[in-house]
């Protein structure tokens, strides 16, 4: 046989290479390492995977199809194991199913791995869901659950039931009794999911908690102590930061136990989109800033673009020209200052540049809203208002000045953390979303998350058309209006997506003028609780819905409408006024949202059921309130929602006999049945019209957001269609696509300017190239943030670990720690006093240096002055007056005197304590924590300054990142030394004789008790109730400034914000 030619070998090699990109390894069970061979970073395919199919090509969902799907074939055997246990679980009573949790936990404690317990745990959860919710997990949902347990990111299409998917791994992980967190994007979804799944977790014997933005510290602590906790990404981050600002263990919420397992919902939005900016808790800074921002805004209004400044829309910054610098300096009255806008006293540049950015780059109804005199940021990815967040760098104040609302003082950073650092604190992190595969590499590099694409339970039938490109926005909106009108006339529901509130408002006005009924979803905070109602009906016959962005809305769009959700809303609408008439306006639903307006006799049944349930609901609402006559409306509605979740679930042994539950369940089922008569007919009519039509009016900067909008259509095998209508005047073309504008404009010149769109592969490719450029730009931004933050994160972990040790330490630990601080400072003081001595220094010079060092130490440590003097005299007794002692002898004397004085200080303070309170430990802990916090805040400011200026190192041929690493570590070393020194000085400067002992039966006022004979300029006032004292942070002598209540009130003045 002849040897193959070179061309034949090349052809074979090309064939092999062509196959490689589509081959994947089969998933492995958690805890088992995948054995692969790596060639230049490429993972060689297994032989078995050569014969598997892509899930998208498998049009049948017959039993056993998972084994044929390449992406998930490795999970097929585990799914079969779970299915084999179905009959066993179904045979168990409710109590037996509940007690199975105890049995599994005992087996886990005995040493069985979670992987071994997985089939039984998943089967039990599946059975509990079937009984309590009427929902049975699909096979692909079990696959998604296993992926989450393994610490992967499960990409599942919209409508595939990700909320239910999370229950199986949550139950399995709860067997460790270490807590599991579900992290969502907003309060509404957190509470909705917790309430919806409460019956399932109750059936399994698990406790469920939910953290909301208005939750108190006690409520947060209780929620985090549950088996499963639902919380938003913002609240989780702020709770972590607040815990590391606490002064007592009773103030801790999240960190009462180590973080264990987390599932991030809408993972790409949280882990990628929102990860560009850190979470920050800030305090107020310069009080004069508001007036300066007003003046800078006025000056910016006189400057003209092109003449005085240039705008970089891509980099989102404004640069002054030479003429602009001169004009601005003249307007602000610093023309005579050689430094102009950068003068050390005025620093007008820090106010003028944010004012220019606010003028040219940030616009009302697009980037922010003004609600009741407050500027609120609009999330560009979800279209929601981001409550409590503020832009940094003075931008938020500049926008406030621009909008002529009250300008709040500047803020200084108290504590901060990036999402990357926060989520890497979890030993096992997982996530789920509808769109993540395009960011798989970044998710793997940053979070160590592998993305698994889970197939849909039913084949996807949605038709995604190519982009329609118009030359102008006018042409585009004409087409949008025409297309919506045509689809609405024949009954096809339309979801129209926009990227800004401004465009949504424009389209709404056009449709109103044309007489087309429609509903709008935008960032209005008043519509937060109404979103589910609007979205649930977006699939009804002839419905038209306009949305600024559909990411994170959290409610599926069902063709023909959602009978179950609307029936639940109707039950809620009946229950609220039955509890209290004042709640009626808060739950009122627009009548046209209901499939049937007149319920006839069912209405009487509904009202009777509500009256039967009302007494029990009132008791539940007011039971936990200190004031039994007043309660927040939101708290009352939360209890009503919890009741509704139980009432709409199938009956169970646990809910049997609860007052009003059975009556409300029967009324709910009757309403649901009535609504379903209309919904079922409309569903078939909508399917005949092609299902839900998604019409995007502008491409987003991220293709993932575009795909999320498309994903609202074609849910679980439904018919659907999607198309994007865009124009060359859209923001993305102007900012990022300038190099493509020429060829696109040329295409229109050839086709003619008749207002009709162009649609071709070349245009689609050009658009994809622009989006890739945008995503690459932001990916580089996030990568750079992570790169620099790794240094800060390492420092933060060390610092917070030391702080927590102090917070939880007893007197023995604190005495040893602070005593070591004092001894180290004594050694450093002597070293500083002698560092300039020459090697041949005379005895007289040495004695002078030693005396200077001892005198300095006595001044720093007044409480040790006598002991230090005594120790030094004893060390010098046997030496002639003119002979200098050995430096080690002097050091031992200073350290010995310091330690004796320290022990005496502890004893003196201890005499002032009463009862069970350990006053020395309380005061030592406070002094150390105070110095920790002050030093860390200054360290953050130093790092921010270093980060802003380290880029200039490149001009001197130095690597900015390397310089950042070196200098930031030097700053951290100095920070540690400062904490040690100042903590010891504060404690040993305390005049223990000035502390007034607390009476045995305290009837003293809340303010500090100070004797008339005491000198208040010296330490100290009284340790107040429960032995706590709050010390003036600006007083290095250690004067007590107030009690713990006053300190907490002062601490709560700090604000949380997302710096943008």
From TrEMBL:
* One of the GO biological process terms: intracellular protein transport
* Protein location: Membrane
Q: Which InterPro entries match?
A: Helicase_ATP-bd, P-loop_NTPase, SecA, SecA_CS, SecA_DEAD, SecA_motor_DEAD, SecA_preprotein_X-link_dom, SecA_SF2_C
GO molecular function terms listed in the Swiss-Prot or TrEMBL record: ATP binding
Question: Topology in the membrane?
Answer: Peripheral membrane protein
Q: Which keywords does this chain's UniProt record carry? A: ATP-binding, Membrane, Nucleotide-binding, Protein transport, Signal, Translocase, Translocation, Transport
Q: Where is the signal peptide?
A: 1-24
Principal place of residence: membrane
Sequence ranges assigned to domain SecA family profile in this UniProt record: 57-757
Q: The Helicase ATP-binding domain covers which part of the protein?
A: 143-283
Q: Which HAMAP family match?
A: SecA
Question: What's the protein called, per UniProt?
Answer: Protein translocase subunit SecA
Q: Which lineage is the organism of this entry classified under, starting from the top rank?
A: Eukaryota, Sar, Stramenopiles, Ochrophyta, Pelagophyceae
């Amino acid at each position: 046989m002849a040897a193959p030619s070179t061309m034949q070998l090349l052809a074979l090699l090309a064939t092999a290479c062509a196959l490689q990109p589509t081959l994947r390894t089969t998933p492995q069970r958690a805890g088992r390492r995948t054995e692969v061979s790596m060639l230049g970073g490429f993972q060689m395919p297994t032989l078995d995977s050569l014969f598997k199919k892509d899930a998208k090509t498998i049009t049948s969902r017959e039993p056993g199809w998972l084994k044929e799907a390449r992406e998930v074939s490795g999970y097929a055997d585990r799914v079969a194991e779970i299915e084999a246990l179905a009959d066993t679980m179904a045979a168990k009573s409710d109590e037996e199913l509940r007690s199975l949790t105890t049995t599994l936990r005992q087996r886990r404690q005995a040493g069985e791995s979670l992987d071994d317990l997985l089939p039984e745990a998943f089967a039990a959860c599946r059975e509990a869901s079937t009984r309590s919710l009427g929902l049975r997990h699909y096979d692909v949902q079990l696959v998604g659950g296993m992926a989450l347990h393994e610490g992967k990111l499960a990409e599942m299409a919209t409508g595939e039931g990700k909320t239910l998917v999370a229950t199986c791994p949550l139950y399995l992980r709860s067997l460790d009794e270490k807590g599991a967190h579900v992290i969502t994007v907003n309060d509404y979804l957190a509470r909705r999911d917790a309430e919806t799944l409460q019956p399932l977790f109750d059936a399994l014997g698990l406790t469920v908690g939910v953290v909301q933005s208005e939750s108190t510290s006690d409520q947060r602590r209780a929620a985090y102590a549950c088996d499963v906790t639902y919380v938003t990404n913002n609240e989780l981050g702020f709770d972590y930061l607040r815990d590391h600002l606490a002064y007592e263990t009773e103030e801790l919420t999240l960190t009462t136990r180590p973080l264990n397992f987390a599932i991030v919902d809408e993972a790409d939005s949280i882990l990628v989109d929102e990860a560009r900016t850190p979470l920050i808790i800030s305090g107020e800074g310069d009080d004069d800033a508001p007036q300066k921002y007003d003046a800078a805004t006025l000056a910016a209004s006189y400057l003209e673009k092109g003449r005085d400044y240039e705008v970089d829309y891509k980099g989102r910054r404004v640069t002054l020209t030479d003429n602009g610098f001169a004009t601005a300096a003249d307007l602000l009255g610093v023309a005579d200052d050689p430094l102009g806008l950068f003068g050390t006293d005025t620093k007008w540049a820090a106010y003028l540049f944010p004012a220019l950015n606010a003028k040219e780059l940030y616009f009302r109804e697009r980037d922010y809203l003004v609600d009741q005199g407050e500027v609120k940021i609009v999330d560009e990815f979800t279209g929601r208002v981001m409550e409590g967040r503020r832009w940094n760098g003075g931008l938020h104040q500049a926008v406030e000045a621009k909008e002529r609302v009250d300008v709040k003082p500047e803020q200084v950073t108290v504590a901060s953390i990036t999402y990357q650092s926060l989520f890497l604190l979890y030993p096992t992190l997982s996530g789920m979303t509808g769109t993540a595969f395009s960011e798989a590499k970044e998710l793997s590099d940053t979070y160590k998350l592998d993305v698994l694409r889970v197939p849909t339970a039913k084949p996807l039938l949605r038709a995604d058309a190519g982009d329609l490109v118009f030359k102008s926005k006018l042409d585009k909106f004409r087409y949008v209006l025409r297309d919506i009108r045509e689809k609405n006339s024949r009954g096809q529901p339309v979801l129209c997506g926009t990227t800004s509130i401004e465009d949504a408002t424009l389209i709404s006005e056009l449709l109103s003028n044309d007489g087309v009924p429609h509903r709008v979803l935008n960032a209005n905070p008043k519509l937060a609780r109404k979103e589910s109602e609007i979205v649930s009906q977006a699939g009804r016959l002839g419905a038209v819905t306009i949305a600024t962005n559909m990411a994170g809305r959290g409610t599926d769009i069902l063709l023909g409408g959602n009978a179950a959700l609307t029936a639940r809303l109707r039950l809620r609408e009946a229950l609220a006024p039955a509890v209290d008439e004042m709640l009626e306006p808060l739950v009122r639903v627009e009548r046209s949202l209901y499939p049937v307006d007149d319920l006839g006799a069912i209405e009487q049944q509904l009202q009777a059921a509500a009256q039967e349930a009302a007494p029990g609901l009132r008791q539940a609402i007011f039971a936990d309130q200190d004031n039994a006559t007043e309660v927040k409306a939101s708290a009352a509605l939360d209890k009503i929602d919890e009741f509704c979740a139980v009432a709409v679930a199938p009956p169970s042994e646990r809910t049997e006999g609860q007052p009003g539950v059975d009556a409300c369940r029967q009324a709910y089922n009757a309403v649901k049945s009535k609504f379903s008569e209309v919904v079922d007919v409309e569903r078939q009519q909508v399917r005949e019209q092609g299902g839900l039509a998604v019409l995007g009016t502008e491409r987003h900067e991220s293709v993932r957001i575009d795909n999320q909008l498309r994903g609202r259509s074609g849910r679980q095998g439904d018919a659907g269609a999607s198309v994007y209508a865009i124009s060359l005047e859209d923001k993305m073309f102007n900012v990022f696509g300038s190099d493509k504008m020429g060829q696109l404009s040329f295409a229109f010149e050839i086709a003619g300017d008749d207002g009709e769109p162009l649609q071709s592969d070349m245009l689609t490719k050009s658009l994809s190239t622009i989006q890739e450029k945008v995503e690459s730009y932001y990916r580089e931004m996030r990568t750079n943030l992570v790169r620099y933050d790794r240094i800060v994160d390492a420092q933060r972990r060390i610092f917070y670990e030391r702080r927590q040790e102090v917070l939880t330490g007893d007197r023995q630990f604190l005495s040893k720690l602070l005593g070591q601080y004092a001894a180290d400072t004594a050694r450093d003081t002597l070293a500083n006093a002698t560092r300039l001595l020459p090697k041949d220094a005379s005895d007289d010079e040495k004695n002078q240096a030693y005396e200077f060092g001892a005198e300095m130490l006595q001044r720093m440590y007044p409480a040790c002055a006598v002991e230090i003097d005594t120790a030094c005299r004893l060390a010098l007794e046997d030496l002639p007056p003119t002979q200098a002692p050995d430096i080690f002898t002097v050091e031992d004397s200073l350290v010995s005197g310091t330690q004796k004085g320290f022990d005496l200080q502890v004893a003196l303070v201890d005499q002032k304590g009463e009862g069970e309170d350990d006053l020395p430990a309380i005061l030592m802990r406070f002094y150390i924590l105070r110095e920790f916090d002050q030093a860390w805040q200054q360290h953050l400011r130093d790092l921010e300054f270093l980060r802003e200026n380290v880029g200039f190192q490149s001009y001197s041929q130095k690597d900015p990142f390397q310089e950042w690493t070196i200098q930031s570590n030097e700053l951290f070393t100095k920070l540690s030394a400062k904490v040690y020194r100042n903590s010891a000085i504060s404690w040993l400067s305390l005049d223990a004789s000035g502390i007034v002992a607390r009476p045995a039966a305290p009837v003293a006022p809340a303010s500090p008790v100070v004797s008339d004979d005491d000198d208040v300029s010296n330490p100290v006032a009284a340790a107040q109730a429960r032995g706590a004292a709050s010390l003036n942070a600006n007083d290095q002598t250690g004067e007590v400034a107030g009690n713990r209540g006053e300190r907490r009130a002062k601490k709560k003045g700090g604000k949380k914000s997302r710096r943008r």
